[in-house]
Amino acid sequence: MKKTRRAHLAAIPPIPAIVGGIVSVQAGAALAKGLFPALGPVGTVGLRVGLSAIMLVAAFRPRLRALSPAQWRAVIPYGLVLGTMNIVFYLSLSRIPLGVAVTVEFVGPLAVAVFGSRRAVDIAWVVFAAAGIALITPWTGGGTDPLGVLLALAAGGCWAAYILLGGRLSRLMPGGASVATGMVIACFVALPVAFTTGGFARLTPPLFVAGIGVALLSSAIPYTLEMIALKGLPARTFGILMSLEPAVAALLGLVFLHELLSFRQWLAVALIIAASTGSTLTSRRPAPLGGGEPGEGWQGG
Asked: Which residues of the chain have a pLDDT value below 50?
């Protein structure tokens, strides 16, 4: 049965796999935002992270007792950043549209891609991204909640740190074991905050089932599809396709959450996509945006 299931998954072409992963991640974020009125953003994070940890540990069975001190030193900060990133991103989602939050957060992996470069072309992509952010900041008339934008930027900073920590961890642990262990560590951030803020006070069986859906869409499904895509796509192509994620987030926010973006906000999305795509195309050593974040990874929150 397992071999048959794996054969069916392996038969998925890489481009539909990565597109399906992007849609799954953003659909999970949209579903999660629908839980905010009942659980709040922090309660939703706690439910999602806890259920995702159970799913990933069941799937990859990391041998926690066998981890070396070096592996623990690498996976603990990785997991702590993962938990923090999810909390901050969901808090931003509670204040600004999904498409705007993902667009602003995408500055994190873009900064990692161009950091330290002195090439004029990379500076141009930074200018594109800065122009996109400027369009939606409240002090330029963008009309977007200022705290929501700052929280999304903080989530982007966490994403950048996560990429760097994930790259280090990937040299010490297999991908499945690392993301499962990292999610367990993330529980030590998300669950205490959720409990202390009363995030689970109104949890009901239907909401718990919805939480399972969020965990599946945001972690289990995209992780599987990402692995399929990475095996069949060049890193450059993978990165270009991932650059479309802010647009997908904006479209799903419109369809499922009825979040209408202004012309300025759509233009900001377009500029960030252009910066991410351009950075991928001109990179000397292309790598997937968000690479090193398997299963949670390239979707950010």
From this structure: 1, 286-300
Question: If you search the block for the tokens 């990937």, which residue do you land on?
Answer: 170
Segment 183-197, tens digit of pLDDT: 999 999 999 999 999
Q: What's the Cα-to-Cα distance from 73 to each of 76, 192, 236, 290, rounded to whole Å?
A: 6, 22, 31, 21
Within 8 A by CB and 6+ apart from 8, the residues are none
Q: How far is CA 101 from CA 2, 220, 235, in A?
A: 38, 22, 25
